[in-house]
Amino acid sequence: MNTRHQPAAPAPLPHTLLEDAAAIFTGVLMISVGVALFKQAGLVTGGMAGLAFSLHYATHIGFGVWFFVLNLPFYWLAVRKMGRAFTVKTFCAVGLLAVVSELQPLFLSLERVQAPYAAVVGGILMGVGMLVLFRHRCSLGGVGIAALFLQERYGWRAGYVQMGLDCLILLSAFFIVDVERALWSILAALTLNQVLSMNHRPGRYGG
């Protein structure tokens, strides 16, 4: 029997400011493409993005405007529970996504997207983009803040927490869009959260 002590794992190196900025930019761009697919197909998703989609369809006010406004109350929780650095990065990510989603039609035009394709591909893109943000201690606010807080405090997987909250938010889809699009929206949310639950677990990533 080998009684020698195994060497301790080296402490993870913190991300630099440049790495954080690059990650926020990369993650937001990926998410913005998923947003464009959802908008073209008339889908809804979970979280603050889902509420922003619902209000966008109901009022015709831009998705980015609603997304930014809906997140404002959550920064207080972020400062108290997650720290100033997390809050600043989250504010930057939310603001950048709000701006990019409003300006995106100048650079990207989608004439026709089938709802099943938008649900799966858009969900994957948004999930991977959010994973990039999560791994740099950043989120898109709202439900993401609550999910990360519960993971760090109690060890609950952020993906599962967000999935549960998203199910409640997705119920609004049945009052905003037709039943077929509402069902495809559920698939989109499940796809997004499965990406997170498989790849973002406590202790798996130490960056």
Describe the structure.
The chain is built from ten helices and no strands. The chain has helices at about 15-40, 45-60, 65-70, 75-80, 85-105, 115-135, 145-155, 160-170, 175, 180-200. α4 runs antiparallel to α5. The radius of gyration is 18 Å and the shape is globular. Helix content is about 70%, strand content about 0%. The longest helix has 25 residues, at about 15-40. The two termini are about 35 Å apart. The model has no long low-confidence stretch (mean pLDDT about 85). The relative contact order is 0.19. By secondary structure, the chain is mostly helical.
Topology readout:
Layout: H1 17-41, H2 47-59, H3 63-71, H4 74-82, H5 84-103, H6 115-134, H7 143-154, H8 158-170, H9 173-176, H10 179-199
Helix pairs in contact: 1-5, 1-6, 2-3, 3-5, 4-5, 4-7, 6-10, 7-8, 8-10
Average pLDDT taken over every residue: 84
Number of helices: 10
Shape: globular
| Beta-strand proportion | under 5%
- Name the helicity range: over 70%
Rg calculated over all Cα atoms: 18 Å
Major sheet details: none
Features:
mainly alpha; 10 helices; 71% helix
Summarize the structure.
About 70% of the residues lie in helices and about 0% in strands. It is mainly alpha-helical. α6 packs parallel to α10, α7 packs antiparallel against α8 and α8 packs antiparallel against α10.
